[in-house]
C-alpha cells in the first residue's frame, strides 16, 4: 500500500513542478498586473508584486486533483464518481478563493485552468517515463540538479525581483530533492513500486489509528521542514552574500539578488525533500505481519477434514468478490467466499488429489490426482464434474502440479514408477475447434529426477520457466521453450534432502528457494549462474536448530512467502499446537518477525498470502480456515478442538514429526 502511495506521490510532484514553473514563467512573459484597487478590495497583499496572468493557484488547484485521479484510479479500488466529484469541487474552491481575495480576475482563473489542461494533455503521457528515468538512470541526480538549476537561472532573467522568484526556486528545489531522493531509495532497494499484476489495491478502511498516523506524519514532516529551513537560512544566506560581495545587513534586501535567493531556496528545499525522499516508509512489512489479527473463521462443515492446500482467485467478481479454493483430506475441494468464509460449493468424491490452484485469468480450479489426471473445475458452475481432464501416460501417479502464469501450460510431477519419475506437460488452452473435455500430454521430461517429484512451480511472470523438486533432493530449473530435456535444463541445485516446498523470489524472480521434509531450507541466486560467485545464498540443514522463537518452539516449516512490494523473502513455520511463526530471510540467516497465536489449535498445513489487501489465509488439522488482516477485530471468538482422521487418510497426508530432531538434541 505505502509503496503505491510513494509511486503516486513522485509522479504528482513531477506534474506540480511542471505546471507551477510554466505558470510562473508565463506570468513574467505576459506581465499583466493584478486587478486594480480600487475598485477591487484586496484581502491579500503579500503576492501583490507578482503579475496576474495566468493564476498559478488556479493551475495548481486544477493540476493536483486531476492528476490524483489519473494516477490513483486503476491503482486503488474506488468508484470513479468519487473522482469526478472531487475535481470540480477542488478546482472551484481554489479558483473562486483567488477572485474573492482580490488577487485575480475571472479571466486569469479561466486562463490558468485552460493552460493546465493543455499542459496535462501534452506532458502527462511522459510522466511515467520521467519517473522511471529519475529512479533508474545512472546519471539521473546530476541531470536533475543541473536541469532544475538551469531552469531557475532562466526564470530569474525574465523580469526584476518579485516574490515569484523565490517561489520558483522553492518549487524547483523541492522537485529536484524529491527526484534525487527517489533515485537513492531505488538504488538502495528501500522502496520498490508494487508490481502491476497486483493492482488495483483495495482501500484501507478509515479508522482512528489510520487518521492518527496521518496527522502524526504531517506534524513530524512540518517540524522537520521548519528546523532544516531555519538551519539552512542561517548558513546559505551569509555564505552567498560573502561569495558574491553582497551586503547582508538587511536579509530581505539581500534576498532580492538572484545570487542569494536562488542558492538559499534551491539548496534549502532541495536538501529537505531529498532527505524526505530518502526516508523509507514508516509502515514496514514486519509491522504488518505483527499486526495480523483474525477477522473471520470458516463456517462449520458436516465433515471436518484437514485443510491441505489454499489458493485464491486472481479475478474479482463484483457480486461475489474473491473466491478461495481449499483442498481437503477427504478428497474434495471446497470453494469459499473469501470475506465471509462460507462454503459456496464443493467438488467431492476425488480421492488422491494433490495441490489446488486457480487459473490466473479466470475462475478455473485445478488439482492433480493419483489416478493419472489433472482435473479442472469451473468455480462459477454448480456442477461437481470437472470441465476438463488432462490425462497422463499409463501408470502415471501425479503428486504435484502447477499452471503457467499465462494459463497456457500445465506441468505435473509423478511418483517414481519402474525407475521413472516424470514431468508431464499439457496445453491448457481451450481450442474452439476441439471441444473435447479430455487432453493428452504434449510430452514429458524423464531424465532429470530419480525419485518422486514432490513440487512443481512455474515462474510468476515468465511462462517458459519452471522449477521442480524431488525426494532425490534435486531442484531443477527448466526453460520449456527448448526442445529437448537436456538443453532445457538451466541449472540443478541440490538440497541434499527430500523437497517439500519450492518457490521463486528476488527482483525479477531470479532466485529460487526450497524447504525439505526434515525442515531444512535452501536459497539460491540464479543471477550468479554465469559468474564466479556461488549461487547458494543460504543453506540451513535444520531450521529448528538455529531459529530462536519466543513463543515455544518451531516444529515444522509450512512454506515461503516472497513479498514483492518490499523485495523480502519470508519463511512460515509453526508448532503442533497451532502457533504460526513468520521469519524473515537474509543471507546471514532466518530471524523471527512475529508469531500468530489464538487461531489454530493443531498443526497448520497451508497458507495463502494476498498481496492486494495484505491478508493471510491459513488452514490446518483443526479443520479451520482463518482469515487474518492487519489490525482486524474478530467478530466471533469460537475455536475448534483438534480433530483426528481415519488412519488411511492420515497415512496419505504429510505428517510433521520432530522425533529425529529430538534424538539429535539428546546426542
Automatic annotation (TrEMBL):
It catalyses: sphing-4-enine 1-phosphate + H2O = sphing-4-enine + phosphate; sphinganine 1-phosphate + H2O = sphinganine + phosphate. It comes from the Eukaryota. GO terms for biological process: lipid metabolic process. It is a multi-pass membrane protein. Keywords: Endoplasmic reticulum, Hydrolase, Lipid metabolism, Membrane, Repeat, Transmembrane, Transmembrane helix, WD repeat. The keyword Lyase does not apply. The keyword S-adenosyl-L-methionine does not apply. The chain crosses the membrane at residues 80-100, 106-127, 139-158, 206-228. GO terms for molecular function: sphingosine-1-phosphate phosphatase activity. One of its GO terms (cellular component) is endoplasmic reticulum membrane. This is WD repeat-containing protein 89. WD repeats lie at residues 446-488, 597-629. Belongs to the type 2 lipid phosphate phosphatase family. It is found in: Endoplasmic reticulum membrane. Its main location: endoplasmic reticulum. PANTHER family: WD REPEAT-CONTAINING PROTEIN 89.
